[in-house]
Structure formats: C-alpha cells, structure tokens
Give the backbone structure.
Amino acid sequence: MKTKILTAALMAGLVMTAAAAQEGRKRPDFSAMDTDGDGSITLAEIEARSADRFTQTDTDGDGAFSAEELIAAAEGRNAERATRMLERFDENEDGLLQQAELPQRDGDRAARMFERVDADGDGMITQAEFDAAQETMGNRERRTDRG
C-alpha cells in the first residue's frame, strides 16, 4: 500500500512538473488539476492528466515515445520558452533580442572559471590544464549522477 501511495505521489510530481512546463508556468494551478471542479484533486484526476500528457506526446498512438516524438515535444517547449523570452526581454519591442536586452549574468564567472583551470596562474590555459579540468568536471558529473 505504501508503495502505491509513494508511486502516486511521484507521478503527481512528474505530472505537475510536465504540466507546468507545457503551460509555461512554474507550477500548475489548482483548478487545472481539479478537472471535475469539486474543490479537491483525486488520484484519478492526476492519473487522467498524466495519461493525457502521454497521449499528447505519443502522436502516433503506439503507446511508446519514439525519439522523434520526444524531440518534437522538447522543440515545442523550447519554442514556447523562446517566445516568452522574447516577450519578456525585448525592451524596444522590435521582435529581436539584442545583447544589451539579455539578462546580465555574473560578469566575474568567466574569470573565476579561467582562474580555476589555469592551475599555474600564468594567465594561459595549457592542454594539460584543460584536460585536468575536463577530468575534474567529469568526476563531478559522475558523482552527481550517483546521487
């Protein structure tokens, strides 16, 4: 029984995340999840929403996701994100994003990264330093993958 509840909770989280991404929001609103409008969300509503999302992505109806279907779904989400980004940051409303309109990131990030890779501090990155940095990042990714 606990396994069934845990599975349902995990499914609910995945469905809510997918719904939010597809609908352009960080979190789905309650009314979207409460499909029968009775003021509560049931497991059946969550499962139905999950099945709907699956069906939307499984465009050929074979009960499985092909690479093409997954790519099409991702491209659709990326197109929506690009549109929202343009709407949000296009200050002069010319339909284009100039570099000056893009959000400014931490300007020192590149310098800090360079300093970390430039192990001997000579202001240049050698092949050996580059390879060592790649190995370090690879090890970090492997640790992250394991948990």
About this structure: The chain has two domains: 2-101, 109-145. Residues 62 and 107 are 48 Å apart (CA to CA). The first helix runs from residue 2 to 23.
